């Protein structure tokens, strides 16, 4: 994997964690995500 792709994946991961972290527990529940799962959801987002 090249440096640019790694950097873009890192940015996407951080952005996903940040956006989900700003959501209320109710909003996360509506999406079917628990607060403890935010990092694993973000990791799955960069795998797509």
UniProtKB/TrEMBL annotation:
<dbReference type="Pfam" id="PF06568">
    <property type="entry name" value="YjiS-like"/>
</dbReference>
<dbReference type="InterPro" id="IPR009506">
    <property type="entry name" value="YjiS-like"/>
</dbReference>
<protein>
    <submittedName>
        <fullName>Uncharacterized conserved protein YjiS, DUF1127 family</fullName>
    </submittedName>
</protein>
<feature type="domain" description="YjiS-like">
    <location>
        <begin position="3"/>
        <end position="39"/>
    </location>
</feature>
């Amino acid at each position: 994997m090249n440096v640019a792709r790694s950097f873009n994946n890192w940015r996407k991961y951080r952005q996903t964690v940040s956006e989900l972290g700003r959501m209320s527990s109710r909003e996360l529940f509506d999406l079917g995500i628990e607060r403890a799962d935010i990092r694993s959801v973000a990791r799955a987002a960069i795998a797509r």
